[in-house]
Amino acid sequence: MTEQGFVSLVLHTHLPYIRHPETEHFLEERWLFEAVTETYLPLLERFQRLVNDRVPFRITMSFTPTLLAMLQDGLLQQRTQRHLDMLVELSEKEIWRTRWQPHFNRLALLYHHRLSTARRLYVETYQRNLVRAFRELVDAGVLEPIASGATHGFFPLMDYQRQAVRAQIHVGVQALQEAFGRKPAGFWLPECGYHPGHDELLKEAGVRFFLTDAHGVLFGSPRPKYGIYAPVFCKSGVAAFGRDLESSKSVWSAEEGYPGDYDYREFYRDIGYDLDYDYVRPYLNGDGTRLNTGLKYYRITGTTNDKQPYDPDRALEKAAAHAGDFMFNRERQIEYLRSIMDRPPLIVSPYDTELYGHWWFEGPDWLEIFIRKAHFDQKTFRLITPSDYLSLHPRNQVIQPSMSSWGYQGYNEVWLNGSNDWTYRHLHQMSQRMTETANRYPRAEGIVRRALNQMAREVLLAQSSDWAFILKTQTHTAYAYRRLHSHMARFNALHEGLQRGEANTELVDQLEKADNLFSFLDYRVYATK
Predict the structure, then answer these.
(1) Model pTM greater than 0.90?
(2) Minimal CA–CA distance to 217: which of 406, 74, 31?
(3) How far apart are CA 112 and CA 107, in angstroms?
(4) Which domains does the chain have, with CATH numbers?
(5) Intervals of the chain under pLDDT 50
(6) Are 4 and 338 in contact (CB under 8 A)?
């Protein structure tokens, strides 16, 4: 029996570039350590298990260049291992502390097993290089990697300086090619932020498709014949895939989504806050601030503070039930769509990768069970990638997608508001000066070339959408301010030096050591000549 349609799971994998060699323990570096421990390693373990069991599947993952750089950085790899060592030690202490509390002791044993396994995978199996681990899945034919913006800049608010968007795209494509040894067919627009005309820049970089939110396609002109259930082509020939709202809501929605089920683990109850301070102090950040350790003993239970102990067996059963529910709903959805379409429909379901494991502890299990069920328990749809669909159905409607994002209210509100609007006049000016300087030095060599490349790094790092998001949400605001002002000041110092006809070797050395990403970067990506 031939399948009636297809499902494409897309995981967007991103973290801002955070690396502070000048400090032994830096709070925001823990974002990477937590992502590796709680999301990337569990997903790799489950994907490899599916490969070993010869379960056929296809999944798409975007990788931002900032994350790729951090995953391959020796210092951060060493600190990630130190983080895993610390958690293994803490879990051992928890086994002893909870020895007279059977329910919690069982959970302590569970955490110790999971953390010991994570450390073994990271240090022994993957030799601390997770990019190589993901590349093995690419070579096995189950994972399609796609690119994203160099530093996750929000493109619609960068259009004032078109070369800045171009640089983000080209550096993003090159970074993925360097990491995976192949040119990406697809591109994840940061925050799904599409601005009309940017598809032309994607085409220039060799990209065949990108993803956008539902209204980016639905509000396009002319109206899409198949809605979001088939790709559309821009006039440039680059394809746009719209996000399916129904399947997304099942996982994302705080009210209706699976992760909010009362049987799942409660994210906001952690021993880093619950236990005696002196006991947990060695496992906190260097400044002693209480924080999440990842060891959590309660389930969501309800909205009250009276949380019940977490039951992993009950949670796994619920994950299996939710995987079955997700599969059933996609079957019914595709059966209906196929009855009114003259081609097999495609359901595109994109998510932030860190949802699986970090925010939703059972997420990796849910994903593995769904993939297995999709292969063994139904024949209505097949898991494929957007590239696969374009190969099967190369002829599609041509429209002009609408400007859009997947942020709150669907447009620019998250990244342009009273908390962060002040940044854009500086970012636009940096981009303009970068282009002017790149045009003035078409064939720079030596220290001048290094200074120009570093200027380009500072522009890219300042443009990260993460800083505007942090300012909007009022979390880690001091750090976001510091990063923005730091990159602006560094750029201005380098620019002023070149304006005087000199390049400060000592300053360039210092900045290259501080932010050592994008070794392949060529400042001329900003040039217009």
Answers:
(1) yes
(2) 406
(3) 8
(4) 5-72+129-265+310-409 (3.20.110.10), 416-526 (1.20.1430.10)
(5) none
(6) yes
